Amino acid sequence: MLSEVRYEDTYLAIQGLANENKFPITELCILGGVSHSAYYKWLHREKSNRELKNEKLLKLICGLYEENDGILGYRQMTIKIRREYNKTVNYKRIYRLMRIIGLKSVCRKKRYNYIKSTTEVTAENILARNFKAEQINEKWLTDVTEFKYGRSGQKAYLSAIFDLGDRSIVSYVIGNSNNNQLVYDTFNLAIKAYPYAKPIFHSDRGFQVRQEVA
What does this protein do (predicted)? Predict the structure, then answer.
């Protein structure tokens, strides 16, 4: 039971990626560090009260998303559910549920300045090697992890952004190539989730990304 709770986010991510992007479940399990049998045991488990409540909440979220032509982000969605349906929900729960089913706010395209650097020194100087943050969305770190799967040793790459404020994952992308585009895609997902955030963004790749102030 403890292992199921510990890996619940991983199982949900596998389920979402398999349903939305048709990725092979066996390979997703390898990437997630869980066994194929454990995932299917979780998939066919007897659902808890919390999971049943989340399913009802997901139906409400989908309905509101369609009614409002996809313009509601997770913050606006949370406020609307609180005010109009008198439900006690927090931003992180709504964000997590919307991310699982791939709902994103339809908004105007923003411009970003991508500042390349030849070494890692520039990025390290910006943070002054202070990898602590007083609040969320103050400092984001990005890293790419390589995974090998299949008999032929195929490679996949998991790019993730980590918030130093609350030690949570802001966004992640799985791709077949370890390149700048993989990191940009991960960054853009994070900005869509937190459109008003202006964090210091640090990457071991030796470049920083700053949101252009409108």
Answer: Involved in the transposition of the insertion sequence.
Any domain includes 27? yes
List the domain range (segments joined by +) for residue 198: 112-211
In a domain, 106, yes or no: no
9-47: b (≥16 Cβ within 10 Å) or e: ebbbbbbbbbeeeebebebbbbbbebeeeebeebeeeee
**Total of domains in the chain:** 2
Taking only the tens of pLDDT, the chain with its 214 residues reads 434 445 777 787 787 677 665 678 888 888 788 888 988 988 888 878 888 888 788 889 888 888 887 888 888 899 889 988 999 999 998 988 887 666 776 544 444 444 444 433 344 445 555 667 788 888 888 888 877 766 667 788 888 888 888 878 888 888 888 888 888 888 888 888 888 888 887 765 544 344 433 3
